[in-house]
Design a protein that fits this description.
58% helix, 7 helices, mainly alpha, 180 residues, Four Helix Bundle (Hemerythrin (Met), subunit A), two-stranded antiparallel ribbon, 2 strands
Length: 180
């Protein structure tokens, strides 16, 4: 991973964390658990999903990095950087989360849930900071974009958080969202 790529990833991870934490600061229990509709996630569920997804992806990256490099796939993945970096700016297409990263109320306490998100993000930042191997030479598939390299997966984590921050803003803008 190039120095500028690492810095961009770290900047995105830090900025998206700050944005999300700003959005979930000082929420009442009613606001925390409000759903726009039965099939949509609450703010708490969005945050739980982010923790699970972050840990799932960083674990997948670590696993892929233990395998052989596949530098011949670089050309195919290189053109996908704009797709990954544009993930947050569009809420479309919508993706269905795999079962392993769907919220189930693992952290019912708001303070604990926020602390778990911070811990997950700190692990990701540490991984992105310390990674020595060429992340551009290792790949695994995204459900919509196909094979992404591990650098793109780290980029995606910041974008994914920003995408859910937009979803939280949408929840808060709902006319039925509790005032307190």
């Amino acid at each position: 991973m190039e120095t500028h790529e690492r810095q961009m990833i770290l900047d995105q991870l830090v900025a998206s964390e700050a944005e999300l934490l700003r959005l979930v600061d000082i929420l009442t229990p009613a606001q925390w658990s409000f759903r726009e509709s039965p099939e949509r996630w609450s703010i708490a569920e969005n945050l739980e999903h982010l923790i699970l997804f972050e840990d799932f992806i960083t674990g997948a990256i670590a696993g892929v990095m233990e395998g052989p490099a596949v530098p011949e796939n670089k050309a195919l993945a290189a053109a996908k950087d704009p797709l990954v970096l544009g993930l947050a700016s569009s809420r479309s297409p919508r993706f269905r989360a795999r079962e392993a990263v769907r919220p189930s109320g693992r952290w019912p306490d708001r303070i604990e849930l926020i602390a778990e998100f911070r811990k997950a993000r700190a692990r990701t930042v540490a991984f992105a900071t310390e990674a020595e191997a060429d992340l551009r030479d290792h790949f695994f598939p995204h459900i919509a974009f196909g094979d992404l390299d591990c650098c793109q997966w780290l980029m995606l984590l910041g974008q994914h958080t920003r995408r859910h921050a937009l979803q939280i803003e949408q929840i808060k803008a709902d006319p039925a969202y509790p005032a307190c």
